[in-house]
Amino acid sequence: MSKERQKKRAEREAAVAAAAQVRAAAAEKQARRDARKEKLTGWLPKPPARQTGLLAEKRRRQAGATFAVLVAFNLLVFAFTQDFYVTSFTLVASLLGAPIIHMMLFRKG
Length: 109
Fold this sequence. Notes:
There is one protein chain. With 109 residues, the chain is mainly α. It has two domains: 1-47; 54-106, no CATH class. It has three helices and no strands. The protein has helices at residues 2-41, 54-80, 84-106.
């Protein structure tokens, strides 16, 4: 009985050692991949972490709605106006007035 247990234990230990060796090889491969990626992209600035949560989602949705309104307005002006100066003035005015339009669309109370 003791020899059977010893044999099974040796098999289990061999299986654990093989699995550990596979994990170590995978970790080494991942470390090489990360080092290569860092070497290639290390000089690029890291993007800021994206805010999560309900308030951040609401802010993104509102900003997207403001952007959509301004783009639609500029497209309408471009479609129905022949004058380049009116179109360019509308574009500049909408860029400068975007915070005011955002406030008018989403102000509280």
